[in-house]
């Protein structure tokens, strides 16, 4: 009986010892596996950090490539501009006195056209075109012969304009104002002095005037109408100075209304109104159909 119990105890102790050794091996294997997982996780984090670093480097390299590409494009454009400059310098028309004369001619033609279009300076435009013609005469190249003919035609058109239409309109307007306002004042004074005794006595009580329109009879009304006429003529003069054709005609139309207030219908009034309409029809701006043709032709010749 006792030997079996001893054998059973030995077997139990051996089993327990074996189980503990196996359990120790399992624990060591688990710890080793955990260490390996931790090492792999750390390695994975390191790889991710390196990946992000590589991505940033790739972005920086891409940005640097774009900058270099833009700089290369700029260098290409500058090279093209330099090549164009060299080609222009190689052009025989760009050499020496001829190039300077052509530049001066173009500048004078541009200046003359601007003086005429912007400032309305006809004399200044003529002087600029005359200087341009003198400079162009010094160029012996037969390619510019047609250009001299075009410039001559344009100068002839400028000379045919005569005086500035604005100056003509203002001069005629001033003469008309003197012919209308001064006689109106003298006529009012003469009518007051030569009126019959009954008009002088009862003029403040009775007024005789056409029924179709109101004619100023009283001295105060006539003075107001005359002042209105003078004001509208002054406004027309100011509009003519600005070459404001609509304002000029509107002022003369209002002046015609004040003119009808000063006198009844008569042949003299009809003549004055006709003169006013003729003044309103006067041009204020300079019209030269061929203006700028020489400059355009010169630029085309130089471009070819």
Automatic annotation (TrEMBL):
Organism encoding this protein: Agrilutibacter terrestris
Residues in Ancillary SecYEG translocon subunit/Cell division coordinator CpoB TPR domain copies: 4-86
GO MF terms held by the record: methyltransferase activity
Keyword set, alphabetical order: Coiled coil, Methyltransferase, Transferase
Lineage summary: Bacteria, Pseudomonadati, Pseudomonadota, Gammaproteobacteria, Lysobacterales
Signal peptide: none
Protein name (database record): Uroporphyrinogen-III C-methyltransferase
Segments passing through the bilayer: none
InterPro entries given in the database record: HemX, SecYEG/CpoB_TPR
GO biological process, one term: methylation
Coiled coil segments of this chain: 23-50
